[in-house]
Structure formats: C-alpha cells, structure tokens
Specification:
The structure holds 2 protein chains of 2 kinds.
Chain A lengths: L21 E5 L19 H11 L15 H5 L5 E5 L1 H4 L8 H13 L4 E2 L15 E3 L22 E4 L6 E3 L2 E3 L5 E4 L3 E3 L12 H11 L3 E4 L10 H4 L3 E4 L9 H6 L2 E5 L4 H11 L4 E7 L4 H9 L6 E5 L15 H14 L7 E5 L5 H10 L3 E4 L1 H6 L23 H26 L14 E3 H13 L4
Parallel strand pairs in A: 9-16, 10-11, 11-12, 12-13, 13-14, 14-15, 15-16
Antiparallel strand pairs in A: 1-2, 4-17, 5-8, 6-7
Helix pairs in contact in A: 4-13, 5-13, 9-10, 11-13
Chain B lengths: L8 H4 L4 H6 L24 E5 L8 H5 L34 H4 L5 E5 L13 H13 L23 E3 L18 E2 L11 E2 L3 E3 L9 H13 L4 E2 L16 E6 L7 H6 L2 E5 L11 E2 L6 H7 L7 E2 L10 H14 L4 E6 L5 H11 L3 E5 L8 E2 H6 L4 H14 L7 E5 L5 H10 L3 E4 L1 H6 L23 H4 L4 H26 L14 E3 L11
Parallel strand pairs in B: 6-16, 7-8, 8-9, 9-12, 12-13, 13-15, 15-16
Antiparallel strand pairs in B: 1-2, 3-17, 4-5, 10-11
Classes of the chains: A alpha/beta, B alpha/beta.
C-alpha cells in the first residue's frame, strides 16, 4: 500500500490572549473576606492564571477571558458576589455566518491540531440554513477498514484534479489516447486566493509553505509573484497560479515547474485554456467561475465545451450566490452543477472545485457529498492565524490579531494544524459512513440526509404542508 | 456481602450455578418523594431581588413573602443572601405579598437574572434546566407562576415544534390511580421473563469513567425505587452495583471493557451497543485523564491512556453475525432479555427489523443529538438523523413487517423532559431512555467540560476522587427519585387529558400531535 498520509503537527499557542466565551463578573466591594474564597478552588485554576496574566501585561490591551463556565465559584461564593456573563468580545467575533463558535473552534484546532471534543451532547439548533440542513449517514455494520479508522489500513482522502478519460484505448497492447495530466491531492482541499474584502498583508509565503508541508496546492495570484522566501523546487509543485490578466505573464520556465493554473472566466476563456494547454500540456487548467446569478448556468455551459477539465466555482464568503437578492446557497448550487454534469455525461471528465462559505470540516465533506470533487478555502486559514474577521483591515485600521507581523513558523504551524484537524475530522465522518475512499464520496447523496426530505417523509404525511 | 436466600428459588432453574452462588441480597429503595434542595450555597434563579442601602431592615419583606425568599437571621447585622430560587418573579406583582411594591423604603428591585443568558443552550434553555432542578428538588412540576418554560426547548425543530392536541375536556374522566404507566419489555413469546417496568423510561448507559461511581449508584438506586432500569454503559460493572443487579442493564459494547461472562449472568437485560447518538459511527471515547486507577482496573486497560472503542463490532458483518452475538448472550444467561442499541442512519428501519429478526427483545434507537459523554463536536452535530425522524420511520416499518407487537421500541437521544417522552411515544416508541436529564437533575449546568482533565467540576461526570465527593449517594438518589416522580405526574396528566388508561394506548397516536410548522390539515388517522 502507498504510504499513509500523515501531517506532522505540534502545538502552536496563540500570540494574543485567548478570547473565551465566558467571563466572571466580580463585585469585590461587598466581599466578606471570609477566607473561603472559591477562587482558590477553581478546578481550572483560572483565577490564578488570570492574576499571572495581569502581572505579565505590558499594556492593558486585552482582558483575560478563559473561564470554563461551570458556575462552581458563582454558586459557592459566601456572599454571592460573582456572576457569569458572556464575554462581549467573544460575541463580537465574526459575523452571522462566521459565528464566534466557528472562530473559536478554528482557533482551537489551529493551536492543537486536535479534533474538538466536548461532553454533554449537542447544544445547537435542530437544523439550520445551508450546510446545517443536512446530516451525514453512518453505518451500523459496514466498516471502512478492518482495524478501525486509525488502524494499519487507512481511509484515503485523496482526490484527483484533471480530466479522467471515459474509457481506455489500446493499440497493439499499448495504451493510447487521452494523456491529460492528473494531479492527486491528499485531501479534497486547496487554498484559495485571499479574500478580496480583507486587505491582508502578504500571507503567500505562509500558505505556500503550508501547502508544501501538507502536500496540497495554494493558489497564488500571478500579480503577487514572486513570493518571498520561495524555494522553487520544493514549493512550485504546490503552487497553483491564478493567471491574472492584468499582471505580467509568468515566465514559461516557472509554469513548467508547477502543476496547476487557474484563469478567470471570460469570453476568451476556452481559447485561453487551449492556448495554455498547447504551450504547457503538463498543466491542469481551471476556469474560475463566480457563482453569481449566471454562475451555475455558466459552469454547466463551460463543462460541455471540449477541452475544459476543471471548473472552480466561487460563491461569496458566506457561501451565497453573489449579488443575488434571494441568494441560493453553495450546497444547492453544487448539486445543480453536479447533476447537470451527470446528465450531460461529463461528470468524470470535469473536476469541480467549489469555494465560498466553507467554514468547518463538515462543510468540506458535505460539499463533496453534494457533488464537488474538492473545495477551496481562504478565511479558515486566516482565522487560524487569529484573525477575528473584524474587517478592521478593510477600514485601514490596526489589525487586532497583528497579522501584519506574522511570523512564518507561527503561521505555517497554525495553518498546518488546522489542515491536520480537518483531515482527521473528514476521516471521522468517512469512518462513520463506512467509506474508505474520498473519491467515492463525491455526489453520493445517499450518504447524507437532507432536512427537507426528512421533514417530508417524517412529518409531511402526518401534518400536511410545511409552511 | 450477604448471600441472598429468599426470592431466588424461581431463578434457580434459569440462573447458572456460579451466578446464584455469588448473587447478593438486593437492596430496596423507597419511592417516597422528599425535599432534596440544591447542594450549592447560591442557587441560580431566574429573578434577582436587589436590596439597596435604603433598607432599614424593618423585616416587612420577610413577613410578606410566603415562600421565604428573604432571610433575616437573628444576630446578624444584615439580611442573609435571599433564597432567590423560591422567588416567582413578575407573577408575584399581582399578589398582595409583592415585596418590591410593599417595601416602605422602596429599597427592593426585581430584575431578571442576567446569568439566564449564560446558562444553558437552545436544546436545554435556562428555564428547562431550572425547571428540572425544581423537579429534582420537589418531586413535582414547577408551578406555572415560576414562569419556567419546561415543556419545550428552543431548537426550532423536532420535539420543540410538536404539540399535543388536547381535547377541551377529557373524553373519560379518570383519576391518577386508574392510569397505568407501565410497559412490558419482552413482547416475544420465547419463554424468557416478561419484565415490566413501572414507567416508560429507564436510565441510559453512562460508564464508570464517564461518570462517577456516586452518579452510577444514584441512578441505580432510583431505578430500584421506580422499578425500572439503569445501564452500566461500556465501562464494566462496579461491584458496588451488585445489590441492584435486578435493575441493571449491562452493556456489551465494541471495546468489551470489563465484560465478563459473570457480569452478563448477573442481570435481567443485556444491551449490545452497536452505536450511540453522541457519536454515531464512532466508538466510545474516554480521554486519558479520566482513565484513573479505578477505571483502568475495571476496564482492564492501561492506566492513563485514552480509550477509544473500535467501531463497529469487528465480529459482526451481517444480521446473521448479530444473531450469533445474541445467541451467545442467550446461552450465557437464560433469563436475560436482549437489547440492541443502534443509532439512526438512513436505514434505521431496516436495522431495527434486522435486529428483531436476529432475536432481540428491545430495539433501542439513539438519535444523533443525544449523549452525555465525550464526543467529537463534528459527530454530535452532523452524523445520523435526529431521533424525532427515526421513531416514526422504525415504528411504521416494524408494523409493515408484522413485527411491531413482538418487539419493544425504545427511543433516546434528545429526550429532555416528560413532554418529549410522551411525544416520542405518540410518534411510535414504547418507551424512552434518559441520560442528560438525570445529570441535570444532579446539578449539571451543561458546561460540556465532562470529557477531559479531572472531569466535571460539579462532581457528576468525573472519576477524580476529590471532585466525586461533591455529591453524596443519598442526595443523588433522592434527586432522581423526585425527578422521576415529576415526570410520572406529568405523564399521568397527559394521559388523563386524553382519557387514556394506559400509556400503551398513546403509542403511535400521531393523530394527537400537531406540528407548528405544518398546515396540520391531514385527516386524522388513529
């Protein structure tokens, strides 16, 4: 068997104080000085940690919020002086899609590379919009491997980018015909271009190095080339160039060392693909299609054109149709494109990369189930480096996460940890489904349950029409 | 331990000799409701009375309040901390003993406790937690004037959007004594004991390791009191559980931790855990910190390492293999009923029928939103369907296959309150399994920190010797007995309103339910 895919990780603590959910409010002036102080017996030592933190402060620019919310001190204080509140800084993280919980769990994964584990069952809503309206299946009996998901046999999360021939042809025993290049990635994930609305510092060196370490691909805008500290031989196989029409053309020798390029959609997109393929037949070429009101239609249209091998669709940052009044979510748009590709008999000839709104590892699995071959992410990588999505950068204000001073070791460590945690969680989901091959997960909606279907089957027959 | 002499004659024929030899006298526990107030100095309350410096300590508030909220201890300069959990808040405004209005100095002010926003979550809102605490304290459903919404959570779906369609008047007038809440667990005519439990629920499997021995024993004693069951979970069988053997289900899970022939022979029900709602498709998780000396000994595992049970049973590839499993237990313990615990995949109905065909007495389906122990967040939220969808699906399929009256269907995974239980039964279950509700009754605040480190800081889900002493068995037992009593009363009330003499009549009566998100115009079919 090929070597097992393994990402080497080590803990990378945050540079800034942690922003926890809870904070204890302490009305000290009424303290009885009873010497039974509940703070001393905090199981988590949080009061001592807080005191040490305050002592170590050079300037008061962040408070300490790392309470675990167990209420023990609140309920045991002799005078009932303590109260628990939600940290307003925590509540201010992110936005309605990129919730504080998503940001916090991403930070935790970027720090530890571990799968988030907690007790007390699920605490969230029954269902929700977008990816929260589907559940993945599990099998009671079928197992993916003989000795467990972390055993000697492994679950393959590898996927391919590029055209796969619909059939093999032989001439005199020799394989002939389509010899299109095929890139094998170890996870259904690539690093997308940085978010256009986050005016971020130059993070390409971090992302390219992380892509190399995780054996993935990071898209780099040709307008931002060259990247500092690049080691051409080691990094270029993990760089996917976005060939920006407004940037100078990249030298051919550079392209000859990479495997993947992407071009924007446009009237000449098909001709441009052919041109690139002619000059660099070893390259896999993707067309980036914005998922606006015409995006789905355009992606389907492109897929039926000869010579197109990869379509990279990009919804907005929240996974919605770009600029639409009543936008559809990426999950539904992926399903439409995937189904159309099947109907057109093109599904195995086209690789579908989908980006926008992929915030959690389950989104990766669910997008693949809906029909994507792989997904692209950008914001989770930023969040891994302690970005709060505050949009201060957009307003030219100081970055509270100090992203402008990012250290390569720290950035690579955090993003690598995040990728590793996502990989492990993908394996958890696939293991539960009894699947050992990510390629087979693509479009397998039988491995998922959709809210609308479950509601109709379970309640529609009993209670009529859903309002 | 004393050898048991009485009541065992009937068991002689069916219990293996070695089990009879080691069987200990079974302990009885009274079902009586007794007050079991919270064990913390400051109980969390929905409303807070603030007293300012204008107070002249005239004592009028103490005089007025029939609930004893204000406490003036003789010899003290100031009022003691008020018993705010007794305060009924705004409902008091309409009475003649509203302290805030009648304080001569206007020194009192009532506000909603800001911590209500911190406590709980949308599955278990603060109101539901406080109401469960009240039930555990008093044995009764909290009075309406407390303003604690305890029938539904705020998840926006599932049980929280289902309501009973009660008739204006009960079709038959019944008294509580006429209502039968018992269910039978063996519906097969296979010569095995016909076990009846007095209430349509039993305690879920929580291993020693995931919870403390005090928690496990409290659950067992409450099960004895209410003639129902508790389950060991997959962490082995504590010797201290032996006086409660007759009310214990022992679990055989994929890790086989602490499973011995002898433990299987002790009990009336053996549960095969194929999967669990907290982490469907994954094995049990016990993180290393909680694998203490006692836990590792019982599990026959290495101290301090994380214990991840494999998934699924590596000896089961088919229903036929499952049948061999069941036959093994049946052979080992001729008096045992067999339960098969599975989660809720797409084909949960097929799994249930397959389990029945293999010879199980109880099909236990555990929905994806349940669970009490450590689980990956990604699994809790995303894998397998919520139990509300699965119950009807399994019930109807068992009916279609002609097997419905030959197998007991038990549902779990998100059964938080008595209303959820009744709705689950109306959807098609015979009964339910409860877990989280029991932990909340014992004082859990759902902080979710039970999985690692020293475990639960409140002494419930911990194996830390010091933390476990925060709770005592008598108190824990009483809290659970009280909770069960409140649930029992609520279930009886529901049945009385429908004019039903038995909870068995409620099973599958979806015509008695409505859904707030639907047109509800489908012709009723009972």
């Amino acid at each position: 068997m090929p070597e097992k895919y393994h990402i080497k990780t080590e803990p990378v603590p945050p540079r800034r104080p942690r922003i926890g959910k809870f904070g204890v409010v302490d009305w000290r002036e009424d303290c009885a000085r009873c010497h039974n102080c509940v703070k001393k017996v905090c199981v988590y030592n949080r009061y001592r940690d807080e005191a040490e933190y305050i002592r170590s402060l050079k300037s008061v620019d962040a408070l300490y919020f790392d309470c675990m919310g167990c209420f023990s001190c609140i309920q045991n204080c002799t005078k009932g002086l303590l109260g628990l509140s939600v940290n307003p800084v925590f509540e201010g993280l992110g936005n309605s899609y990129w919730t504080p919980q998503i940001i916090q769990t991403t930070w935790m994964q970027a720090e530890t590379a571990k799968i988030p584990v907690s007790g007390a069952g699920y605490k969230g809503p029954h269902a929700g919009p977008g990816f929260d309206s589907m559940w993945t299946d599990m099998s009671e009996i079928v197992r993916p491997t003989r000795d467990g998901i972390h055993g000697r046999e492994y679950i393959s999360t590898a996927v391919d980018i590029g055209r796969k021939p619909s059939h093999l042809s032989f001439d005199d025993g020799q394989l002939v015909g389509d010899d299109s290049p095929l890139i094998c990635l170890q996870m259904p994930l690539i690093f997308d271009l940085p978010s256009p609305v986050h005016a971020l510092p130059d993070l390409e060196p971090v992302l390219v190095e992380t892509a190399a370490r995780t054996d993935l691909i990071a898209l780099v805008d040709s307008a931002r080339w060259p990247v500092d500290g690049i080691d051409l031989e080691r990094h270029l196989p993990h760089v996917g160039f976005y060939l920006n029409p407004s940037a100078p053309e990249l030298p051919g020798e550079l392209l000859s060392q990479t495997r993947f390029v992407e071009i924007p959609d446009g009237e000449d997109a098909i001709a441009r693909v052919q041109e690139i393929k002619q000059q660099h037949p070893h390259l896999v070429v993707a067309i980036r299609v914005a998922l606006d009101g015409q995006g789905v239609k355009r992606a389907i249209e492109l897929s039926s054109c000869d010579g197109i091998e990869v379509i990279h669709t990009a919804a907005d940052l929240n996974g919605n149709e770009i600029g639409a009044k009543d936008p559809r979510f990426i999950k539904d748009m992926i399903r439409d494109i995937h189904t159309a590709l099947i109907d057109n008999g093109k599904r195995d000839e086209i690789t579908l990369i989908c980006g926008g709104g992929i915030a959690l590892p389950e989104h990766m699995a669910k997008a693949v189930i809906c029909g994507a071959d792989l997904i692209s992410v950008n914001l989770p990588l930023l969040i891994a480096m302690e970005c709060r999505l505050c949009s201060s950068c957009d307003k030219s204000m100081t970055c509270p996460a100090e992203l402008e001073d990012i250290d390569l070791t720290y950035g690579v460590g955090r993003t690598t940890n995040l990728v590793a945690a996502w990989h492990d969680q993908l394996i958890e989901l696939m293991g539960a489904m009894g699947m050992r091959e990510a390629r087979r997960l693509r479009g397998d909606v039988g491995r998922a349950m959709f809210f609308e279907d479950l509601e109709e089957e379970s309640f529609g027959t009993l209670f009529g029409t859903r309002k | 331990m004393a050898r048991c002499s009485a009541q065992e004659n009937s068991l002689k024929e069916i219990l293996p000799e070695n089990t009879l030899r080691t069987r200990v006298a079974q302990t009885q526990v009274s079902r009586e409701v007794r007050p079991a107030p919270g064990r913390y100095r400051n109980e969390i309350a929905k409303y807070i009375i603030r007293r300012n410096d204008d107070c002249i300590r005239c004592g009028k508030c103490v005089e007025l309040c029939p609930r004893g909220v204000h406490v003036d201890k003789p010899g003290y300069k100031y009022f003691a901390e008020p018993k705010l959990d007794r305060c009924i808040g705004p409902a008091c405004e309409k009475t003649d003993h509203y302290c805030v209005a009648q304080c001569p100095q206007s020194a009192l002010r009532m506000v909603e406790n800001p911590m209500m926003k911190v406590l709980g979550d949308c599955r278990w809102p603060a109101d539901m937690i406080l109401a469960t605490w009240k039930m555990a304290e008093t044995g009764d459903v909290p009075a309406e004037e407390f303003g604690l919404e305890h029938e539904c959570g705020a998840t926006g779906g599932g049980f929280d959007r289902l309501r009973f369609k009660f008739p204006d008047k009960p079709p038959v007038k019944l008294s509580p004594d006429e209502i039968d809440t018992s269910i039978e667990l063996n519906k097969r005519d296979d010569g095995r004991p016909r076990i009846t439990i007095d209430v349509p629920w039993y305690g879920g499997g929580m291993s020693f390791g995931s919870v403390s021995n005090v928690t496990q024993l409290s659950k067992a004693r409450a099960a004895v009191a209410w003639n129902t069951f508790t389950c060991t979970g997959e962490g082995g069988y504590m010797e201290r559980m032996r006086p409660f053997d007759d009310h214990v289900i022992t679990q055989v899970a994929t890790g086989l931790f602490g499973v011995r022939e002898e433990t299987i022979q002790r009990v009336p029900i053996v549960e095969f855990k194929y999967a669990q709602g907290a982490k469907p498709g994954l094995g049990g998780h016990l993180l290393g910190d909680k694998n203490t000396i006692a836990v590792s000994r019982m599990r026959e595992a290495v101290l301090g390492i994380s214990l991840f049970s494999p998934f699924p049973f590596h000896s089961v590839y088919s229903i036929e293999d499952h049948m061999k499993h069941l036959d093994w237990i049946k052979h080992l313990n001729p008096r045992a009923l067999l339960s098969t615990k599975v989660s809720t995949p797409t084909d949960v109905d097929m799994v249930a029928v397959g389990s029945y065909a293999a010879g199980t007495h109880i099909v236990h389906i555990d929905g994806g939103y349940g669970g009490t122990g450590a689980a990956p967040d990604i699994a809790k939220k995303n894998i397998a369907m919520p139990i509300e969808y699965a119950i009807g699906r399994v019930h109807r399929f068992l009916e279609a296959e002609g097997a419905r009256d030959k197998v007991t269907l038990i549902a779990s995974g998100g059964i938080r309150v008595a209303q959820d239980m009744a709705k689950a039964i109306a959807l098609g279950a015979d009964g339910v399994v409860v877990g989280t509700s029991e932990l909340v009754a014992l004082g859990c605040v759902r902080c979710s920190r039970c999985e690692s480190g020293r475990g639960c800081p409140r002494g419930i889900a911990t194996t830390d010797a010091v933390l476990a002493t925060k709770m005592d068995i008598e108190w824990g037992t009483q809290r659970l007995i009280n909770l069960y009593n409140a649930w029992y009363k609520e279930l009886v009330e529901i049945l009385m309103r429908f004019g039903m003499r038995s909870v068995k009549e409620l099973r599958g009566r979806t015509d008695l339910l409505m859904h707030l998100d639907y047109s509800n115009d489908v012709k009723a079919k009972s």
